[in-house]
Amino acid sequence: MKILGTGSALPKHTVTNDMLSEIVDTNDEWITTRTGIKSRQIITTERFEELAALAAQRAIDAAGLVPEDIDFIICHNVCNAYVTPSLAALIQHILGIKGPNCPTMDLNSACAGFIYGLEICEAFLQTGRAKKILFVCAEEVTRMVDWTQRETCVLFGDGAAAMVLGKGDNYLASKLTSTPMPEVIYYRLPCEPTPFETGEGIDTHIAMQLKGREVFRMAVTSAQKDIKDVVAKAGLQLEDIDHYLLHQANMRIVDAIKQNFDLPQERFHHNIEYRGNTSSASIPMLLDEKIREGVVKRGDLMVFNGFGAGFVTGAAVMRY
Ligand code: ACO
Description:
Layout: E1 2-9, E2 13-16, H1 17-20, H2 28-35, E3 39-42, H3 48-62, E4 72-76, H4 87-95, E5 104-107, H5 113-126, E6 132-140, H6 150-153, E7 158-166, E8 171-178, E9 185-188, E10 206-210, H7 212-233, E11 243-246, H8 251-258, E12 268-269, H9 272-275, H10 282-292, E13 301-308, E14 312-319
Parallel strand pairs: 4-5, 4-6, 11-12, 11-13
Antiparallel strand pairs: 1-7, 2-3, 6-7, 8-14, 9-10, 13-14
């Protein structure tokens, strides 16, 4: 598998910490010292699926292709207003990609979704079932939180990132794990009531719940192990890797992970300061930004590492 092109798209509305302090009892100092976040982009008037399709079109342009060249669309998305059809099917429609030879499907592996999605793309490309996959990670996490809960609402931002993947030898190693701990991060929506359901509380709506300290501990511990394991699996040394792109959950998490590696610290990229936590979109948005800045160049070695609700984790080594 190799990356043929990347793209991303952001909502236009910037929300600073000071703006949040007018909504909940918080302040810039608390948010900055606990999370590193200064501002984030939040969906207002945009339609989510159009934002995701814009990121997709930019990735197709960057690959020098046209939408009709795509023969599989895979999206990662935790939650959006459409439960069905899939976000992938909506993007196909917006981009005007005619069927029936471009299957579409969505995945959900929470904030580790980018890593899980790469693995699925690799499998389809390896078997020859697809030749040009459009892989999109798009999230509107700010619509999953309770905006009266200061512990969670300050952490997140919205955004979309995409890439076109084709056959190649650049996907060098991967590792996926899952530890059953649903209580650490979860979000429940009610389903439609039926005349037959009897269980108490089955249809309870619970906005995103987060056991912050447990998430912090799990994230730092798993990331250190996953990164070491995946680099060894690729037959490489940690110092061979040019770029470490970690899920942008919290600047303190990224700092705690990188301090455990005796490596030039600038190899650990971050943009959480002005993006917030965008769940599965965070790594590919960061990658697109660094490619467009010329920081990540063709031939460079990258490690991706993600972790999130489940508790799922994953890492991959890839050459750009
Ligand atoms: N503004 C001001 N005060 C706040 C806020 C806020 N936004 N939120 C909580 N507080 C208060 C609490 O009420 C509590 O007050 P108390 O001590 O009087 O009870 C206090 O701040 C808690 O402070 P700390 O214990 O210092 O908070 P902590 O250092 O644990 O930081 C945080 C909280 C940022 C959530 C941290 O636990 C964390 O980073 N966890 C990781 C979770 C995370 O990043 N999740 C991202 C999503 S999950 C994912 O992507 C995988």
